[in-house]
Design goal:
The chain has 12 helices and 21 strands. With 350 residues, the chain is α/β, with parallel strands linked by helices.
Length: 350
């Protein structure tokens, strides 16, 4: 038995495959799908992205995705999967079951009228059909007999194949805040850089560090969970709000004197300073803190997050793009701290 984790090169987004492989069978969980170019990119979508290549690999092995977890609605988490759903070549093995707190699921749960503007419509192959006339994702999931979970909320525990998943986010109140028309976030093939905090030294950050929480209601709705199997524990945080995650880790009985021992932590929101506090890090004990981003959007990862992980933990910080690492340390910090930063292997085996 072995567990493999692949944190794919999904540009500025998240796309993670967790596989449990035995001698006779395998079980695959796909967490998010990255932005659209994680599936295919280039002129007429002629180039395959990391997600597409992983699906090809599963197909070649005669496997499929047993569970898809769409953590929340941001384009850098779901648009790659939307493109995959639109491609009939990949649909049959794409998904057997799904966790996705869709607008329709949320409105049904809270017994309020459906907000049709939030429905996800898929383009089809016909040049005569516009996206607005395309197939509704939820109807497609019904057609392919995809098993749908009820709304995913903190406190729930699911046994899925060989895995146990304990949900840490979102809270019910965070889903309730989605009961409105969602804005459309534009996505382009290239994303612009924003100001970063890389000019600050680690000592400057430590001297005046103050945590300010992420105000985004959409990130707040992100699914975060503790995954357990074969004595291994991993934390996948999506873009979840720090204080919600910390509260629910404490509710499981952990504290700064009784830390949650983990094999891997996928840091929230691509290393944003607004989603990882020193308080939450004080609850964790892991050798591996992984950050998924190519560094092209919003100045992420923030150096403040790197500084907090270095100070509050003994673990290493891993990135899925090597070029993200050098700018994070000033020249006089390299000798002391470069050993704490590393590049993820293409596949992590536990």
């Amino acid at each position: 038995m072995a567990i493999f984790v692949r944190i794919l090169k999904a540009n500025h987004g998240d796309c993670i495959l967790v596989s449990h492989e035995g001698s006779l069978s395998a079980f695959n969980i796909l967490i998010d799908g990255g932005p659209s170019m994680a599936f295919k990119h280039g002129l007429r979508q002629r180039y395959k992205g990391a997600l597409c290549k992983v699906l090809d690999d599963l197909k070649e092995k005669g496997q499929h995705v047993d569970l898809v977890i769409l953590t929340h609605i941001d384009d850098d988490h779901i648009n790659g999967l939307i493109k995959a759903f639109e491609d009939p070549e990949y649909l049959p093995q794409l998904v057997k079951a799904i966790w996705f707190n869709s607008s329709r699921l949320i409105t049904q749960h809270f017994k309020v009228p459906e907000i049709s503007e939030n429905n996800i419509l898929l383009a089809d192959d016909s040049p005569l059909t516009s996206v607005q006339q395309g197939k509704d994702l939820e109807k497609l999931l019904d057609e392919i007999q995809c098993v749908r979970a009820p709304p995913i909320m903190a406190g729930q525990v699911y046994n899925v194949g060989p895995f146990t998943l304990k949900v840490l986010s979102p809270e019910r109140s965070q889903l309730e805040r989605l009961l409105h028309k969602w804005p459309i976030e534009g996505e382009s093939g290239t994303t612009s850089s924003h100001d970063n905090d890389y000019g600050l030294s680690l000592s400057e950050i430590w001297a005046e560090d103050k945590f300010v929480s992420d105000p985004s209601i959409y990130n707040g709705s992100s699914i975060a969970f503790l995954l357990e199997s074969d004595g291994r524990k991993m934390l996948f945080l999506g873009d979840a709000h720090d204080q919600v995650v910390a509260g629910n880790i404490r509710a499981l009985g952990y504290s700064d004197t009784n830390k949650l021992k983990l094999d891997l932590v996928k840091i929230s929101h691509h290393g944003s300073q607004y989603n990882t506090s020193s308080e939450t890090l004080s609850l964790l004990d892991s050798p591996c803190y992984a950050i998924s981003t190519d560094g092209t959007k919003h100045g992420l990862p923030n150096k403040r997050t790197i500084a907090r992980i270095i100070k509050a933990t003994n673990g290493k910080i891993f990135f899925n793009y090597s070029h993200v690492i050098p700018p994070l340390l000033l020249p006089d910090e390299v000798e002391s701290f470069s050993s704490r930063l590393d590049v993820l292997d293409e596949e992590i085996k536990f």
